[in-house]
Amino acid sequence: MRSLLLLLALVLAACSGNSNDQFAVAEQVQVVPDQPDPALVVQVDEWTARWTGLPFILNDVTWDGENFIVVGDSGVILTSADGTDWAQRESGTDVDLHAIASDGLDIVAVGDLTTVLLSTDHGESWSIKHSGDRVYLPAVAINAWQIVAGGMDQHTGNAFVIRSGDRGETWTVVESLPQSGHFVTDLVYANGLFVAATDVFSSESDARVLVSVDGEDWQPVILRDDVAASYAILHDGNRFIAAGSHSTVFTSADGYLWTESQTPIQDVDYLSAAWNGSKLSVAGGIAWWYWWVGTPPFERPVGISSIDGGATWAIFDIDGYYQSRGMASGNGHFVSVGQSTPISGEGAIYTSP
Question: What is the four-CA torsion angle of 309, 315, 319, 323, rounded to 10 degrees?
């Protein structure tokens, strides 16, 4: 998902002649150290490879109370009850699927070309509820009365949100969405609110989330004054957690007032997060600008975990240059899905413990 975001940013910047795109920022960043951060003690979480070397990238995973359901490129959908044994399901599409969410028996997956899929049998079978063109959907949230999907209009770079109140039979495009160069990267519904994580093309902007009580009217909320993308957002029962670029993690009790946590690792983009009832795990991969100039000369712990809401963090690694793009907790396990490196295109699944 995130590699596509960067490609889209490059294409849009080239078309618009905008010199303040994310790649211009990369030229200004003084990175490429020979070694990772000194004096880091890595916590040895037991991560086990369950499926590696897959010929497609895996982008997200959810636990619906009975199955883990994974979505990936080329319409790939996988299911597993235990995170160990996996079955591939027929999705009915070959577009890249980027995000998945569940509420009871309803499971919704979204992806390229404004594609929305629905399953009501724990991910075994799927129906197409929406499709179109030009819009990239990397975010979806569902509750008992509404599905909300978000992303970016690829023609304009604007944020895009659609919503359905009848389980995907009809859809409404949100016309009043605030437009400031930000686009939606992830969504969560909790505590009576939809909260959307965002990314931005311009280097002269801020970090923000979008908040809505009904999915129709959205309010921008500033996390901090300088740029930081958020790629993963969740609620742990007490607070919202947004994680993203530059090793950033923000927390909020109400969705409106946010505090930035101090994280122990530099230059990691956090792309996935999950909560198991007692522990928060956040993971990703070495920041994209290292891969822009070639393979980084070092490996770096890609994950952090906390049992006190982000006040303190432990460090963990999964497997070398592995990039975690989606994470879920269920049946006593964390499941992480992604690719073996941020540029490999080879999908992988890991579990812990």
Answer: 50
Tell me how many domains the chain contains.
1
On the CB side of 82, CA atoms within 13 Å amount to: 4
Quote the radius of gyration of the chain (alpha carbons, Å).
18
The length of the chain, given as a count of residues: 353
Which helix (H) or strand (E) is 192 found in, with range?
Answer: none
* Domain interval for residue 286: 2-27+46-352
Looking at residue 204, what is its pLDDT?
A: 67
- Residues with Cβ within 8 Å of 138's Cβ and at least 6 positions away in sequence, in order, are 1, 5, 59, 98, 99, 110, 150, 151, 184, 185, 186
pTM, two decimals, is 0.89
In a domain, 33, yes or no: no
In a domain, 40, yes or no: no
* Sign of the CA dihedral running 238, 318, 84, 336: positive
Largest CA distance in the chain: 55
Assigned domain for 39 exists: no
d(Cα 27, Cα 9) in Å, to the nearest integer?
15
Higher per-residue pLDDT: 188 or 8: 188
Residues 163/196, Cβ–Cβ less than 8 Å: no
- How many angstroms separate the Cα of 260 from the Cα of each of 97, 196, 310? 30, 17, 9
What's the rounded Cα separation, in Å, for the pair 160 and 22? 20
Which residue type occupies 223? L
